[in-house]
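Record now logged for everyone:
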Amino acid sequence: MGEYLEHFEQTEIISEEHGLPENISITDDGTIDSSIIEKKMKDVLKKTSDKGYNKLKFLINRETTKIEVYDTGSNTGSMIRLATSGVRMAKHYVGSKSEDLYFKVVYTGLRHKTTKKGNEALFLYYESPEQWERHFKTTCPADVKSKWNQKYHKALRKQFSNK
């Protein structure tokens, strides 16, 4: 019984910070189906152990919105990482010509929690301005999109002319 209570208390902590599924099934004997909780706990541990993972909180239309992002960092030579998924882009590095293939956002807000970095800026890479708009539920100015598209197409032409 003590093990069950300890497990339940851990689950409550994770539930408050990361949100457990609403449809947790309770068995006939009154216990919680642990497979759902274990899967959620593994997902949470995987994300929180990733030094590039951050959860941001914003007020949008008077509602608190949480956005999960993956930081690439600013070190030249670091592999570019998509902010939405954390996928590392093979052969695409910070400071290289391939960096122009991505829409880069430097987030300097102070409302994110990280275990290792404190309140340093986050370097977020997107495949397009539109992807950033969807992720942050915002709009990007048309002139910024236009300049990025020109830079992107120029980088694409260079990449294919060198092969």
